[in-house]
Amino acid sequence: MDFIESLTMAVKTITAHKLRSSLTMLGIVIGNSSVIGMVGIGQAAQRFAASQFEALGPNVLFVVPGSRETRRNAIETPNTLVMKDAQAIDQQVPTIKAVSPQITSRQVVSYLQETQSKTIQGVTPQFLPVRNYNIAQGRFITEDDIERNNRVAVLGADVVETFFGESPAIGQSMRIKNISFRVIGILEPKGTMLGNNQDDEIYLPISTLSNNLVGRTSPYGMQLNFISVTAKNEDTIKAAQFQIENLLRLRHQITGEDDFRVETQKDILEIVGSITGALTVMLVAIAPFLY
After folding, report:
1. 49-56: which pairs have CB atoms within 8 A and are 24 or more residues apart?
2. Total structural domains within the chain
3. What is the pLDDT of residue 243?
């Protein structure tokens, strides 16, 4: 059978079974479109994650407690980082510019008749330059606030909208876990970071949050949720990562697996990329069955 005869028979078959042929072709078109669409969604998710981390600046590293395995299996964050670790990094690592230790907690916040649960961040003055935040009104937390355990608070833009609306917030007192805090500053809007609304958070002196609200202390000092570090420039990021790892291994007297991780933006984006890549493969696999 030559090509002309094969083509003629194919046309006759399609003509004889118009509905079935149309549905078959429609299924092929939809299937291909689904695959293309799902791949596009995965690529868009990776680009979105990259743009989120770019807002931090290119030189930020994150020191987090626990090994990858312990963090995967633990219900709560491991308590293997303390304030003295952050101070040692600041004083002994020559390739870094600034260090921002941080404690995170969820607490009940109230002002007049409004009561809501909010994320509370315990920070130091270095939080602003390290995380690329700016003050819109008032002032930020100072070393004096930390030394004195001052009960002062800096609010994200959405927190101000929720509790104060158009009324002035600076100088007002609001209660966190039924303890009174005076509002001293408001941050410029920052937007979301991987789904987390950064404008819906409240910032306190790290000592005040630790001592008055969460009690994150140990025989080794104040326990931290993580440490943000800024390298001097992009060329020193890997060196800073290496130096921080060696310093903490010595401080923690580690002979086996590290009880912490030091991750660059590139490391985090690779993890995000692997997750979105796996999700894309899964979506592509099931896409033809969604129609």
Report:
1. 49/194, 49/269, 49/272, 49/273, 49/276, 50/269, 52/192, 52/193, 52/194, 53/265, 53/268, 53/269, 55/132, 55/190, 55/191, 55/193, 56/131, 56/132, 56/265
2. 2
3. 97
Backbone φ and ψ for 289, nearest 5 degrees, come out as -90, 0
Give the list of residues 6+ apart from residue 179 with CB closer than 8 angstroms, or none: 151, 212, 213
Residue pLDDT, tens place only, 173-229: 999 999 999 999 999 999 887 678 999 999 999 999 999 999 877 788 899 999 999
**27 and 155 part of one domain:** no
Q: Tell me the residue range of the domain where 14 lies.
A: 3-53+272-290
**Of 108, 73, 97, 105, residue with least CA distance to 224:** 105
Q: Is 229 helix (H, G, I), strand (E, B) or coil?
A: strand
Find where tokens 């870094």 sit. 96
Backbone CA torsion sign across 250, 252, 256, 261: negative
Q: Is the pTM of this model over 0.85?
A: no
Cα angle 130, 134, 135 (rounded to 5 degrees) comes to 130
